[in-house]
Design brief:
The chain has 16 helices and 22 strands. It has about 550 residues and is an alpha/beta fold. Helix 11 (about 330-345) packs parallel to helix 15 and helix 12 (about 375-385) runs antiparallel to helix 13. The longest helix has 16 residues, at about 175-190. The radius of gyration is 23 Å and the shape is globular. The two termini are about 25 Å apart. The structure holds alpha-D-glucopyranose and calcium ion.
């Protein structure tokens, strides 16, 4: 496999609104991020995925962009953004800009022009259709944020498509002028010295609207290749495409080296399998290890020699990792460390979502008005109107709502967790007095230092980066274990995914293995035996015979 500089990199995702507020208005901002660069450097990460900071009316917290080349006033200025890029670079950290080009804000000048008349030169930047024969919407496409995916424009008597909110009109990627504008904009960002792009819902740009094919449309890969050639392909940038629809076969198309598309895709198989077939994320299924193992193994195997995996348990759209896959209670620390070890010992590029490194948890606000996320708010109204009860919908929001990940970063035990001196835009998780960065820094055994160690190991041991993934103890219902193998080196990774004490029978040929314990969340183990007693959520990685 051809080596790339970002293969041993670790990405840290910042959701700017919730990271650090520097001026007391209750909203995180760029100067707040700059003030925490030393913290991130100490953690050892190399890339920051920066959720959108562009100018935006914030209907979807910045995923609705009204100017790609200006910064939202509440986040700062372009001068501050350039300073962030420069100050990060001094610490060997590169910024991945979150690029949202499936849609813009309805306040983007292109859309304002498009609304003016049917023959406006910008009309065709968006997707318009005449009403259906009965005068209604062109087809029954439903928006991901509730309601119809079509919005009626009185003035022209036509509908425009919006896969997300009505304030996020979809761009028309069948119009070559859109390509030209987007490519030029991307090149201007690259010229500012950014490290690359995270590409929002990139699988939707090739859509075939009339056939109602939204994800994975026939032009998708041609559009990405064209973008690669016109922009980031000329340099050394890293690109990660968000693709909810991707199968392993798609991922090989996106991330195969000779394809010249993206560095990697961010796919959600391991997340979606715990959603209900009908109610989706709003009715969550309990975590179940067997299918989780099967999915991870499927991706590790499919992308073993071609393509590259993104590794993550959480992001700004998902519940907190420890709440979803571990234990928020008694075993919060042990399970958060276990999850970290598991993630960082798989093959691919690990992503740490802000707060994950201190084991932040989900929130359970009782009333809907504590919530801010447009998706939760819209779907709450829609589902209640369909007869779903308040309790059931709140359960769904508690389990999978996006605000779980968006409560303010917990820096210390001062009021509002040290995130702001003002009133935060969303209520701080009440557990900040115990769970915060200051406490984690002061505790040598904290989740935070465990993450720091894992990030450092990746730089030191090529087996973690390039070693083949080989499942072991495949049928075990409570333990997820695998080997990584590179040349003569073998790394054995064992994770107890339960709160139980287990006696683990070791396969015969491994019983005399011994070596160096690279990381563990209980006493380090340097050898195996006929069987070993695993503690709740115990995990360790053993480097054999070096
Ligand atoms: C992506 C983003 C999400 C956003 C949506 C629309 O899924 O991660 O936060 O709401 O795209 O841009
Ligand atoms: Ca602020």
């Amino acid at each position: 496999m051809e080596k790339k500089w970002w293969h041993n990199a670790v990405v840290y995702q910042i959701y700017p609104r919730s990271f650090m507020d520097s001026n007391g208005d209750g909203i995180g901002d760029i100067n707040g991020i700059i003030s925490k660069l030393d913290y991130l450097q100490q953690l050892g990460i190399n890339l920051i995925w920066l959720s959108p900071v562009y100018r935006s009316p914030m209907d979807d917290n910045g995923y609705d962009i009204s100017d790609y080349e200006d910064i939202a006033a509440e986040f700062g200025s372009m001068a501050q953004m350039e300073s962030l890029i420069a100050q990060a670079k001094q610490r060997d950290i590169h910024i991945l800009m979150d690029l949202v080009v499936n849609h813009t804000s309805d306040e983007h000048p292109w859309f304002i022009e498009a609304l003016k008349s049917k023959d406006n030169p910008y009309r065709d930047y968006y997707i318009w259709r005449k009403p259906a024969a009965d005068g209604g919407q062109p087809n029954d496409f439903h928006s991901y944020f509730g309601g119809s995916g079509w919005a009626f424009d009185e003035a022209s008597g036509e509908y425009y498509l919006h896969q997300f909110s009505v304030r996020q009109p979809d761009l028309n990627w069948e119009n070559p002028r859109v390509h030209g504008e987007v490519h030029a904009m991307m090149n201007r960002w690259l010229a500012k010295g950014i490290g690359g792009f995270r590409m929002d819902v990139i699988d939707l740009i090739g859509k075939e609207v009339d056939a109602q094919i939204m994800a994975n449309g026939k032009n998708l890969h041609a559009l990405i290749r064209q973008m690669n050639r016109a922009t980031f392909g000329k340099g050394d940038a890293v690109t990660v495409g968000e693709a909810w629809s991707a199968t392993p076969a798609d991922a090989l198309l996106y991330s195969g080296v000779e394809r010249e598309e993206l560095s990697m895709v961010f796919q959600f198989d391991h997340i979606k399998q715990f959603w209900d077939e009908h109610a989706g994320k709003w009715r969550s299924k309990p975590f179940e290890l067997a299918s989780f193992k099967a999915v991870i193994e499927k991706w590790q195997t499919a992308l073993a020699h071609q393509g590259w995996n993104s590794l993550f348990w959480s992001n700004h759209d998902l519940p907190r990792a420890v709440s979803k896959f571990g234990d928020e209670g008694e075993f919060r620390v042990a399970s958060a460390k276990m999850l970290a070890t598991a993630l960082h010992c798989l093959k691919g590029t690990p992503y740490i979502y802000q707060g994950e490194e201190i084991g932040m948890t989900n929130v359970r606000y009782e009333t809907i008005d504590e919530y801010r996320d447009i998706e939760s708010l819209n779907l709450y109204q829609e589902r209640l109107a369909e007869g779903v009860s308040h309790e059931e919908m709140m359960q769904g929001i508690h389990a999978n709502g996006r605000d779980n990940a968006r409560t303010p970063m917990q820096w210390d035990d001062s009021p509002n967790a040290g995130f702001t001196t003002g009133t935060p835009w969303i209520t701080v998780n009440p557990n900040y007095r115990e769970i915060n960065v200051a406490a984690a820094l002061a505790e040598p055994d904290s989740i935070l230092w465990h993450y720091q160690k894992l990030v450092a190991l990746r730089k030191q041991y090529p087996v973690l980066v390039y070693g083949d993934f080989q499942p072991v103890l495949r049928e075990h219902p409570q333990v997820f274990a695998w080997l990584r193998a590179l040349d003569s080196e073998r790394l054995l990774v064992i994770n107890n995914f339960t709160a139980e004490h287990l006696t683990l029978d070791i396969p015969h040929q491994m019983q005399n293995w011994h070596g160096e314990c690279l990381i563990s969340n209980y006493a380090p183990r340097d050898r195996l035996a006929v069987s070993i007693e695993l503690q709740p959520y115990e995990s360790f990685a053993l480097l054999i015979g070096r």
